[in-house]
Amino acid sequence: SLADIGLADAKPAERKARSVSAAAIGCPNCGGPLSLRAPDKAERVTCPNCNSLLDVNQGNLSYLKALEPTKADTAFALPVGAEGTFPGDVKFRIIGAVVRSVLIEGVHYYWHEYLLYNASIGFRWLVHSDNHWNFVEPVNPAEVEAAMGSTLFTSVPTMVNYNGRRFKIFQDAPATVEYVKGEFYWRVEQGETVRAIDYVSAPVMLSEEITANEVNWSAGTYMTVAEVEKAFGVTGLAKPWAAGPNQPFTGRFYYTWGILPLLALFAAAILMVPFTGITSKVMEQQITLPPMASPAAPQVAFSQPFDLKPNRNVQISASAPVDNSFVELDVDLINDQSQEIEGVTIPIEYYHGSDSDGAWTEGGQSQDATVSSLPGGKYTLRIEGSWQNSTQPMPISVRVEQNVMRGVNFLCALIVLAIVPLIGLFRKFSFESARWKDS
């Protein structure tokens, strides 16, 4: 500042800003009228009347050649001369439009580029590809550096760093000018080709264009169709049909915020352990059921009394030495004071053998059943059993436990709460796959 150099009382010189207005001139080929919106900077202009490419030399026009026919779509979505308002209330006018293409595996891929101009700021670009839009600004090449280790197997970096972000290579192909319209600040030629290398870190695409004489870097920021329509005051622009190379994924909310209920569930499960305690065994007993008088006459046995605490679930486990047979136990929990009964069925079956596919097994020699919490007090088990080999006694082992961590409710809650973040992650994976499938 002036104060820093001891000139605090000095006043800067007042200079009048130079104003450059559009210049109206005639086409040297057809005589038709045309205008230059940046006459002090224009190097090339096309005549809208005869489709000629003209050279500009200090406002003087000279005919170069007629533009050659092209298979590319030259119906631009935005007209030359349209004015748009961009973030920061900055107005840019479209002064030129270009159709460019790349040839990959015998297929031409086309896109449109609009040259934007603001007398105070300079030139910018608006790129329209597959109905995706990018606002493109120049980048100082010194600010772009190859990422560490990205050039091990190729002369082109697979990743570059810029502005604190890492960009991954998306495309490296020759880009050709197919058609031009309007005026341009360089001597554009139909058919001119540059090596175009694009790097992506959504919502930004970093692009390098290489010619024999120079290297230019630019950064394109993704714009939605709605944002472009608002900027130019238009409606009805075509919507994109696939994921754009640097289109940001908008469903991150579902798997970022959707994971919070899952974290709360785990936190609640951990906090519940001190309050509910750990599993405790309240009774274990070996009981032998005598042979049945007939298959229709089950045998009954009673366990020793045991105490149950309130507000805790009860799990009854039973095991029996069944082998290619079964035993079915109907177990009643009898409250010795109130004589209230809570009944469960515990079927035990175990079969095994072999066939053409090899050995097989089914079932097991132990099974359990769980009931919700019961009133505290003294209880007895009434066990009524029937089994396949009814003429033989059936030894069984019975165990009663309380406060068993089964995890069924936790698992059900986990499945329900995981639906939203899983859908979000699936959408993210699908979106990224669609983004990179054409890279």
Q: List the secondary-structure elements in sequence, H or E.
A: EEEEEEEEEEEEEEEEHHHEEEEEEEEEEH
The protein's oligomeric status is single chain
Give the mean pLDDT: 89
Low-confidence stretches: none
Question: How large is the share of residues in beta strands?
Answer: over 45%
The radius of gyration over CA amounts to: 40 Å
Shape: elongated
Lateral arrangement of strands in the main beta sheet: 7-8-9-10-16-15-14-13
- Provide the structure class: mainly beta
Residues in helix, %? 10-25%
Number of helices: 4
Give structural notes.
It is a single chain. The protein has helices at 225-232, 252-256, 259-276, 408-436; strands at residues 23-26, 33-36, 44-46, 52-57, 60-66, 83-86, 90-104, 107-118, 122-129, 132-139, 144-146, 159-162, 165-184, 193-201, 204-210, 215-223, 280-289, 299-302, 306-308, 314-319, 325-335, 341-355, 358-364, 366-371, 377-387, 394-402. With 439 residues, it is mostly beta strands. The longest helix is centred in the last third of the chain and has 29 residues, at 408-436. It is elongated.
Observed structural traits:
47% strand, 439 residues, mainly beta, 26 strands
Short description:
The chain has 439 residues and is mainly beta. It has 4 helices and 26 strands.
Ordered list of secondary-structure elements with their pairings:
Blueprint lengths: L22 E4 L6 E4 L7 E3 L5 E6 L2 E7 L16 E4 L3 E15 L2 E12 L3 E8 L2 E8 L4 E3 L12 E4 L2 E20 L8 E9 L2 E7 L4 E9 L1 H8 L19 H5 L2 H18 L3 E10 L9 E4 L3 E3 L5 E6 L5 E11 L5 E15 L2 E7 L1 E6 L5 E11 L6 E9 L5 H29 L3
Antiparallel strand pairs: 1-2, 3-4, 3-13, 4-5, 6-7, 7-8, 7-13, 8-9, 9-10, 10-16, 11-12, 12-13, 13-14, 14-15, 15-16, 17-26, 18-25, 19-25, 20-24, 20-26, 21-22, 21-25, 22-23
Helix pairs in contact: 3-4
